[in-house]
Amino acid sequence: MTSPAITIGPRVRKSPFYDATIRAGAKAFTIYNHMFMPTSYGDPNAEYWSLVRGVTLWDVAAERQVEIIGPDALALTQLLTPRDIDRCPVNRARYVVFCDNNGGIINDAVLYRHAENHFWLSPGDGDVLLWAKGVAARSGLDVTVREPDASPLQLQGPLAPKVAQKLFGDLAIELGYYHFIHTTLDNIPVVLSRTGWSGELGYEIILLDSSRGTELWEHCMAAGAEWGIEPACPSLARSMEGGLLSYCSDITLNDDPFTIGMARLLDIDKPHDYIGKAALQAIAKAGPARRLVGANFYGAPVVPNQHFMPVKAGEDVVGHVTRYAYSPRLEHNIALVNLPTALSAPGTPISLDAGDGWRTAEVVDIPWIAAEKTIPT
Question: Which CATH entry fits the domain spanning 66-146: 3.40.30.10, 3.10.290.10, 3.30.70.1400, 3.30.70.141?
Fold first, then answer.
Protein backbone atom coordinates (compact mmCIF):
# COMPACT_ATOMS: atom_id res chain seq x y z
CA MET A 1 0.00 0.00 0.00
CA THR A 2 1.33 3.43 -0.93
CA SER A 3 1.77 5.76 2.02
CA PRO A 4 -0.21 9.00 1.88
CA ALA A 5 1.60 12.23 1.15
CA ILE A 6 2.33 14.52 4.09
CA THR A 7 1.86 18.27 3.68
CA ILE A 8 4.78 20.29 5.07
CA GLY A 9 4.78 24.01 5.82
CA PRO A 10 7.18 26.52 7.38
CA ARG A 11 6.42 25.19 10.87
CA VAL A 12 8.80 22.31 10.05
CA ARG A 13 12.33 23.69 9.93
CA LYS A 14 15.20 22.65 7.70
CA SER A 15 18.55 21.95 9.32
CA PRO A 16 21.73 23.89 8.47
CA PHE A 17 22.86 20.73 6.62
CA TYR A 18 19.65 20.21 4.63
CA ASP A 19 20.99 21.44 1.28
CA ALA A 20 24.13 19.35 1.69
CA THR A 21 22.12 16.20 2.42
CA ILE A 22 19.95 16.75 -0.65
CA ARG A 23 23.07 17.05 -2.81
CA ALA A 24 24.46 13.93 -1.11
CA GLY A 25 21.39 11.96 -2.22
CA ALA A 26 19.00 11.90 0.75
CA LYS A 27 15.87 10.08 -0.38
CA ALA A 28 13.60 10.23 2.68
CA PHE A 29 13.08 12.37 5.77
CA THR A 30 11.11 12.19 8.97
CA ILE A 31 9.93 15.01 11.22
CA TYR A 32 11.85 15.04 14.51
CA ASN A 33 11.61 17.87 17.04
CA HIS A 34 9.73 19.93 14.43
CA MET A 35 12.61 19.61 11.92
CA PHE A 36 13.42 17.57 8.83
CA MET A 37 15.81 14.70 9.56
CA PRO A 38 17.14 12.35 6.84
CA THR A 39 16.12 8.70 7.25
CA SER A 40 17.46 7.12 4.06
CA TYR A 41 19.94 7.63 1.26
CA GLY A 42 18.30 4.80 -0.68
CA ASP A 43 19.89 1.59 0.68
CA PRO A 44 19.66 1.02 4.47
CA ASN A 45 21.68 -2.19 4.18
CA ALA A 46 24.57 -0.38 2.49
CA GLU A 47 24.39 2.37 5.13
CA TYR A 48 24.52 -0.30 7.86
CA TRP A 49 27.70 -1.87 6.48
CA SER A 50 29.31 1.54 5.94
CA LEU A 51 28.61 2.29 9.59
CA VAL A 52 29.93 -0.96 11.08
CA ARG A 53 32.95 -1.29 8.76
CA GLY A 54 33.92 2.26 7.82
CA VAL A 55 32.80 5.79 8.62
CA THR A 56 29.57 7.71 8.04
CA LEU A 57 28.29 11.28 8.44
CA TRP A 58 24.76 11.97 9.72
CA ASP A 59 22.66 15.12 9.79
CA VAL A 60 21.06 14.97 13.24
CA ALA A 61 20.52 18.71 13.70
CA ALA A 62 16.99 17.72 14.71
CA GLU A 63 18.56 16.85 18.07
CA ARG A 64 17.63 20.31 19.28
CA GLN A 65 19.53 21.36 22.36
CA VAL A 66 17.83 22.85 25.42
CA GLU A 67 20.12 25.33 27.16
CA ILE A 68 19.81 25.98 30.90
CA ILE A 69 21.93 28.87 32.09
CA GLY A 70 21.98 31.34 34.98
CA PRO A 71 22.78 31.47 38.70
CA ASP A 72 20.32 28.64 39.52
CA ALA A 73 20.91 26.48 36.45
CA LEU A 74 22.35 23.62 38.51
CA ALA A 75 19.40 23.72 40.89
CA LEU A 76 16.90 23.52 38.02
CA THR A 77 18.79 20.71 36.32
CA GLN A 78 18.83 18.74 39.56
CA LEU A 79 15.06 19.25 39.79
CA LEU A 80 14.50 17.89 36.28
CA THR A 81 16.33 14.55 36.56
CA PRO A 82 16.83 11.78 39.12
CA ARG A 83 20.53 11.65 38.24
CA ASP A 84 22.82 13.57 40.59
CA ILE A 85 24.35 16.30 38.45
CA ASP A 86 26.83 17.23 41.18
CA ARG A 87 28.75 14.16 39.98
CA CYS A 88 29.11 15.48 36.44
CA PRO A 89 32.28 17.58 35.97
CA VAL A 90 32.51 20.49 33.55
CA ASN A 91 33.20 19.36 29.95
CA ARG A 92 31.59 15.99 30.61
CA ALA A 93 28.29 14.53 29.40
CA ARG A 94 25.85 12.15 31.07
CA TYR A 95 22.88 10.13 29.87
CA VAL A 96 19.81 11.20 31.85
CA VAL A 97 16.05 10.69 31.98
CA PHE A 98 13.31 13.12 32.97
CA CYS A 99 10.20 11.85 34.77
CA ASP A 100 6.75 13.07 35.70
CA ASN A 101 5.31 12.87 39.21
CA ASN A 102 4.35 9.22 38.64
CA GLY A 103 7.81 8.19 37.47
CA GLY A 104 6.76 8.05 33.81
CA ILE A 105 9.50 9.10 31.42
CA ILE A 106 9.03 12.56 29.88
CA ASN A 107 12.10 12.00 27.67
CA ASP A 108 15.71 10.88 27.75
CA ALA A 109 18.72 13.00 26.84
CA VAL A 110 22.44 13.46 26.82
CA LEU A 111 23.29 16.23 29.30
CA TYR A 112 26.34 18.43 28.64
CA ARG A 113 27.86 20.49 31.44
CA HIS A 114 29.61 23.52 29.94
CA ALA A 115 30.20 25.36 33.23
CA GLU A 116 29.12 25.26 36.86
CA ASN A 117 25.74 26.76 35.93
CA HIS A 118 25.54 26.15 32.18
CA PHE A 119 23.97 22.99 30.74
CA TRP A 120 22.64 21.61 27.47
CA LEU A 121 20.06 18.85 27.28
CA SER A 122 20.03 16.89 24.00
CA PRO A 123 16.70 15.00 24.14
CA GLY A 124 14.82 12.62 21.92
CA ASP A 125 11.78 13.62 19.90
CA GLY A 126 9.51 15.69 22.16
CA ASP A 127 8.92 19.20 23.48
CA VAL A 128 11.47 19.14 26.31
CA LEU A 129 12.15 22.86 25.79
CA LEU A 130 8.54 23.71 26.68
CA TRP A 131 8.50 21.27 29.60
CA ALA A 132 11.73 22.70 31.06
CA LYS A 133 10.43 26.24 30.56
CA GLY A 134 7.25 25.31 32.43
CA VAL A 135 9.15 23.80 35.35
CA ALA A 136 11.46 26.83 35.45
CA ALA A 137 8.53 29.25 35.44
CA ARG A 138 7.00 27.59 38.52
CA SER A 139 10.30 27.04 40.34
CA GLY A 140 11.12 30.64 41.29
CA LEU A 141 14.72 29.98 40.28
CA ASP A 142 16.94 32.55 38.56
CA VAL A 143 17.52 30.71 35.31
CA THR A 144 17.07 31.06 31.55
CA VAL A 145 15.85 28.14 29.42
CA ARG A 146 16.23 28.53 25.66
CA GLU A 147 17.23 26.82 22.43
CA PRO A 148 20.82 27.74 21.46
CA ASP A 149 22.20 27.90 17.92
CA ALA A 150 23.59 24.36 18.14
CA SER A 151 23.19 21.77 15.37
CA PRO A 152 24.84 18.33 15.62
CA LEU A 153 26.43 16.23 12.92
CA GLN A 154 27.40 12.70 13.86
CA LEU A 155 30.64 11.17 12.59
CA GLN A 156 30.22 7.46 13.30
CA GLY A 157 31.94 4.15 12.57
CA PRO A 158 35.20 2.35 13.43
CA LEU A 159 37.16 4.72 11.17
CA ALA A 160 35.58 7.86 12.67
CA PRO A 161 38.61 8.51 14.94
CA LYS A 162 40.89 8.69 11.89
CA VAL A 163 38.66 11.29 10.25
CA ALA A 164 38.26 13.23 13.50
CA GLN A 165 42.03 13.26 14.01
CA LYS A 166 42.50 14.65 10.50
CA LEU A 167 39.94 17.36 11.25
CA PHE A 168 40.89 18.29 14.83
CA GLY A 169 44.32 16.82 15.51
CA ASP A 170 45.27 14.62 18.44
CA LEU A 171 42.69 16.16 20.78
CA ALA A 172 40.09 14.04 18.98
CA ILE A 173 41.96 10.85 19.91
CA GLU A 174 42.70 12.03 23.45
CA LEU A 175 39.08 12.95 24.15
CA GLY A 176 37.51 10.47 26.57
CA TYR A 177 34.15 8.75 26.09
CA TYR A 178 31.34 11.19 26.96
CA HIS A 179 33.85 14.06 27.14
CA PHE A 180 33.54 17.18 24.98
CA ILE A 181 35.44 20.35 24.14
CA HIS A 182 34.73 23.72 22.53
CA THR A 183 36.96 24.23 19.49
CA THR A 184 36.96 25.47 15.88
CA LEU A 185 37.39 23.95 12.44
CA ASP A 186 38.65 26.48 9.89
CA ASN A 187 37.20 29.20 12.17
CA ILE A 188 33.82 27.44 12.34
CA PRO A 189 32.84 27.26 16.04
CA VAL A 190 31.87 23.75 17.16
CA VAL A 191 31.59 21.50 20.18
CA LEU A 192 33.40 18.20 19.61
CA SER A 193 31.92 15.40 21.71
CA ARG A 194 32.71 11.68 22.08
CA THR A 195 29.03 10.78 21.95
CA GLY A 196 26.60 9.39 19.39
CA TRP A 197 23.71 7.02 18.74
CA SER A 198 25.33 4.38 16.56
CA GLY A 199 26.78 1.73 18.86
CA GLU A 200 30.09 2.28 17.04
CA LEU A 201 32.99 4.61 17.75
CA GLY A 202 31.99 8.14 16.97
CA TYR A 203 31.70 11.83 17.61
CA GLU A 204 29.14 14.56 17.55
CA ILE A 205 30.36 17.74 15.87
CA ILE A 206 27.92 20.36 17.08
CA LEU A 207 27.85 23.44 14.86
CA LEU A 208 27.50 26.75 16.75
CA ASP A 209 26.84 28.95 13.69
CA SER A 210 23.89 27.74 11.62
CA SER A 211 24.94 29.88 8.64
CA ARG A 212 27.90 27.55 8.05
CA GLY A 213 26.20 24.16 7.81
CA THR A 214 27.13 23.32 4.22
CA GLU A 215 30.71 24.42 4.87
CA LEU A 216 31.07 22.13 7.89
CA TRP A 217 29.48 19.19 6.04
CA GLU A 218 31.89 19.58 3.14
CA HIS A 219 34.91 19.79 5.48
CA CYS A 220 33.89 16.48 7.08
CA MET A 221 33.25 14.73 3.77
CA ALA A 222 36.55 15.95 2.31
CA ALA A 223 38.50 14.78 5.39
CA GLY A 224 36.85 11.36 5.24
CA ALA A 225 37.30 10.78 1.51
CA GLU A 226 40.44 8.66 1.88
CA TRP A 227 38.55 6.33 4.24
CA GLY A 228 35.49 6.07 2.00
CA ILE A 229 33.16 8.17 4.16
CA GLU A 230 29.47 7.87 3.22
CA PRO A 231 26.44 9.99 4.15
CA ALA A 232 24.07 7.95 6.26
CA CYS A 233 21.24 8.08 8.78
CA PRO A 234 20.67 6.58 12.22
CA SER A 235 20.57 2.81 11.65
CA LEU A 236 17.52 0.94 12.94
CA ALA A 237 19.33 -2.42 12.97
CA ARG A 238 22.52 -1.16 14.61
CA SER A 239 20.69 0.89 17.23
CA MET A 240 18.65 -2.16 18.19
CA GLU A 241 21.71 -4.45 18.26
CA GLY A 242 23.35 -2.03 20.67
CA GLY A 243 20.27 -1.62 22.88
CA LEU A 244 20.08 2.08 22.03
CA LEU A 245 16.53 3.08 22.85
CA SER A 246 14.30 5.52 21.01
CA TYR A 247 11.85 7.84 22.74
CA CYS A 248 8.22 7.42 21.59
CA SER A 249 9.13 3.89 20.44
CA ASP A 250 10.98 1.92 23.11
CA ILE A 251 10.40 4.55 25.81
CA THR A 252 7.06 6.23 26.50
CA LEU A 253 5.38 8.17 29.28
CA ASN A 254 3.86 4.86 30.41
CA ASP A 255 7.34 3.47 31.14
CA ASP A 256 9.50 4.19 34.17
CA PRO A 257 13.32 4.03 34.14
CA PHE A 258 13.31 0.60 35.80
CA THR A 259 11.15 -0.79 32.99
CA ILE A 260 13.73 0.17 30.38
CA GLY A 261 16.73 -1.08 32.39
CA MET A 262 18.11 2.32 33.42
CA ALA A 263 18.29 1.75 37.18
CA ARG A 264 22.10 2.06 37.07
CA LEU A 265 21.73 5.65 35.85
CA LEU A 266 19.51 6.79 38.71
CA ASP A 267 20.43 8.40 42.00
CA ILE A 268 16.93 8.09 43.43
CA ASP A 269 18.02 8.96 46.97
CA LYS A 270 20.10 12.00 46.05
CA PRO A 271 19.76 14.82 48.61
CA HIS A 272 18.18 17.17 46.08
CA ASP A 273 14.47 17.21 45.36
CA TYR A 274 13.46 16.18 41.83
CA ILE A 275 10.26 15.52 39.92
CA GLY A 276 9.04 11.96 40.50
CA LYS A 277 11.24 11.26 43.53
CA ALA A 278 8.61 9.58 45.72
CA ALA A 279 7.26 7.55 42.81
CA LEU A 280 10.67 6.26 41.74
CA GLN A 281 11.61 5.35 45.30
CA ALA A 282 8.37 3.34 45.58
CA ILE A 283 8.97 1.55 42.26
CA ALA A 284 12.55 0.74 43.28
CA LYS A 285 11.20 -0.92 46.44
CA ALA A 286 8.38 -2.86 44.76
CA GLY A 287 10.09 -3.60 41.46
CA PRO A 288 8.80 -2.68 38.00
CA ALA A 289 5.63 -4.31 36.70
CA ARG A 290 7.03 -4.55 33.17
CA ARG A 291 10.41 -4.86 31.47
CA LEU A 292 11.80 -4.00 28.05
CA VAL A 293 13.76 -7.00 26.77
CA GLY A 294 15.09 -8.42 23.53
CA ALA A 295 13.71 -11.27 21.47
CA ASN A 296 15.13 -13.39 18.67
CA PHE A 297 12.94 -14.75 15.91
CA TYR A 298 13.58 -16.33 12.56
CA GLY A 299 12.18 -16.74 9.07
CA ALA A 300 12.20 -14.16 6.29
CA PRO A 301 13.65 -10.73 7.12
CA VAL A 302 10.93 -8.73 8.81
CA VAL A 303 9.68 -5.40 7.50
CA PRO A 304 10.25 -2.78 10.25
CA ASN A 305 7.02 -2.05 12.11
CA GLN A 306 5.18 1.24 11.82
CA HIS A 307 3.32 0.83 15.11
CA PHE A 308 3.41 -1.39 18.20
CA MET A 309 2.75 -5.06 17.36
CA PRO A 310 1.09 -7.50 19.78
CA VAL A 311 3.00 -10.20 21.66
CA LYS A 312 1.45 -13.37 23.06
CA ALA A 313 2.35 -15.89 25.73
CA GLY A 314 0.29 -18.91 24.80
CA GLU A 315 -3.01 -17.51 23.54
CA ASP A 316 -2.97 -14.34 25.64
CA VAL A 317 -1.74 -10.95 24.43
CA VAL A 318 0.70 -9.91 27.14
CA GLY A 319 2.76 -7.11 25.62
CA HIS A 320 3.95 -5.40 22.49
CA VAL A 321 6.89 -5.11 20.15
CA THR A 322 8.32 -1.60 20.25
CA ARG A 323 10.64 -2.12 17.23
CA TYR A 324 11.85 -5.02 15.17
CA ALA A 325 14.31 -5.39 12.33
CA TYR A 326 16.55 -7.88 10.54
CA SER A 327 20.14 -7.84 11.81
CA PRO A 328 22.63 -8.27 8.95
CA ARG A 329 25.43 -9.36 11.27
CA LEU A 330 23.38 -11.74 13.41
CA GLU A 331 21.57 -12.99 10.29
CA HIS A 332 18.19 -13.21 11.99
CA ASN A 333 15.38 -10.94 13.14
CA ILE A 334 15.53 -9.14 16.48
CA ALA A 335 12.89 -7.29 18.46
CA LEU A 336 12.57 -5.05 21.49
CA VAL A 337 9.57 -6.22 23.47
CA ASN A 338 7.67 -4.74 26.42
CA LEU A 339 6.51 -7.61 28.68
CA PRO A 340 5.30 -8.28 32.23
CA THR A 341 8.29 -8.77 34.50
CA ALA A 342 7.23 -12.39 35.14
CA LEU A 343 7.72 -13.16 31.43
CA SER A 344 10.95 -11.20 30.92
CA ALA A 345 13.57 -13.84 31.78
CA PRO A 346 15.92 -14.95 28.96
CA GLY A 347 14.69 -18.13 27.32
CA THR A 348 10.98 -17.40 27.84
CA PRO A 349 9.00 -18.47 24.73
CA ILE A 350 6.65 -15.90 23.21
CA SER A 351 5.07 -15.26 19.83
CA LEU A 352 4.81 -11.96 18.03
CA ASP A 353 2.92 -10.50 15.12
CA ALA A 354 5.55 -10.01 12.41
CA GLY A 355 3.19 -8.22 10.03
CA ASP A 356 2.89 -11.29 7.79
CA GLY A 357 1.66 -13.64 10.51
CA TRP A 358 2.62 -14.85 13.97
CA ARG A 359 6.14 -16.12 14.60
CA THR A 360 7.65 -17.89 17.57
CA ALA A 361 10.34 -15.97 19.45
CA GLU A 362 12.53 -16.28 22.52
CA VAL A 363 13.34 -13.60 25.10
CA VAL A 364 17.02 -12.61 25.28
CA ASP A 365 19.10 -10.06 27.14
CA ILE A 366 20.05 -6.81 25.44
CA PRO A 367 22.27 -5.58 23.92
CA TRP A 368 22.99 -8.13 21.23
CA ILE A 369 26.20 -6.33 20.24
CA ALA A 370 27.70 -4.01 22.85
CA ALA A 371 28.53 -0.42 21.99
CA GLU A 372 32.12 0.36 21.05
CA LYS A 373 33.67 2.89 23.43
CA THR A 374 37.46 2.58 23.34
CA ILE A 375 39.59 4.01 20.52
CA PRO A 376 42.27 1.44 19.54
CA THR A 377 45.82 2.56 20.26
Answer: 3.30.70.1400
